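does this look right to u?? zinc ion version
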Amino acid sequence: MAPGGGACKEVVKSVPTIADYDVGTTKSESSPTATRSSVTVGFIGKQEVHSNNGVYELLECPLCKTLMYPPIHQCPNGHTLCMNCKIRVHNCCPSCRYDLGNIRCLALEKFAESLEFPCKYQSLGCHNIFPYYSKLKHEQHCRFRPYNCPYAGSDCSVTGDIPTLIAHLKDDHKVDMHDGCTFNHRYVKSNPHEVENATWMLTVFNCFGKQFCLHFEAFQIGMAPVYMAFLRFMGDDNEAKTFSYSLEVGANGRKLIWQGIPRSIRDSHRKVRDSQDGLIIQRNLALFFSGGDRQELKLRVTGRIWKEELELQNKTV
Ligand SMILES: [Zn+2]
Ligand SMILES: [Zn+2]
Ligand SMILES: [Zn+2]
Ligand SMILES: [Zn+2]
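got this back:
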């Protein structure tokens, strides 16, 4: 019989998965490439873990099908398992039902260290190749990693590069697209007292060859119903910061003005909203701006997007 005890009962409960192994701290990253004999594994396609390549199969956890990182565990009969699954199956080998004990598969860990893999966003344009243990860390920040759909009205799971998302917003969400860096937008809602049915609207602006999402919605800050308008940039944060925008809303000689910097769509819609990084209009004021009998919301939001360096150049000319 195998050491470490006999067969165990099958107990598979879902427990919260523990944090990903911090691949940045492995010594493979600091060891010079030149001293290691490396194997570069090429592949085409997005879903590397489903690749038929034998190396992938070896490093793939048989239970959760994700790539394994140290500590890689094995049962007394040699079946490997990732750290998260070891906890999930309560130390019982899912292949042979033997107690897993606490055996590390050092040979596989060492073997993995000698491998180099292309970034998993290769098909999206990243041509970098990484040692196995620094690949994950890179992929978390790879500038080619897909963006989430910026539409806020539903839980949309579509991801992709910017051109894919623009087509998706047009075709699937029927979002309004506008060309130009200034806008003048009217928001009308007949029963503005129902904040629960959150009013949200998305308009996309095309300017400077880039796309910006103008969000408008109703929600509550504490007990106070408010409307909020803010801009998100369809691209990464470092580029978002090169733009500024202003929003104005008002009527009857009163005006609210907001000036801000668009947030990258890498920041979720909710995160931006909750940080209140935009033009916030209290409902009472919004109804006042709407005029009439306060039964209908009629807001005219005007705005402008500009590029900071261009603005500076214009001023110095
Ligand atoms: Zn697993
Ligand atoms: Zn086993
Ligand atoms: Zn990459
Ligand atoms: Zn979507």
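The chain has two domains: 23-141, 147-316. idk if thats expected tbh
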